[in-house]
Specification:
With about 130 residues, this protein is an all-alpha fold. It contains five helices and two strands, in the order H-H-E-E-H-H-H.
Amino acid sequence: MTSPAKKSDFYSIGELARMVDLSQRTIRYYEEIGLLHSVRRMEKGKRVYTDDDVRRLKFINRLKVLGLSLAEMVELEKVYRIQRNNREIIPKLLAILDERANQIDDRIHQLAALKQEIREYQVRLRGKMMVQEA
């Protein structure tokens, strides 16, 4: 059983924003689209956040780095809210990450081909310069 958070365990939105390197506006947006649910309100309706919110936002940031869109994250969150376990989420997340890895491989191939084309063009241009100088 978890103990309720003490007052000192709460963070203002400004403190939270600094802790997770996000803007306050972004945090509010994540609340609006359903990525952040555990927001509490204290007296006078002031938002307060907990260590769980810190962990959640750090996880969201990690998913962004891995290439997930906000829409994909919201979809995963909806599935989690229904299932309340990771059994359904992990296969979906793996499929998304497989797709991202494939997209990166495709992009690397395209960039390597572009680099080769640039090098070949440079050789042709240098050849034209030598002909003109002679």
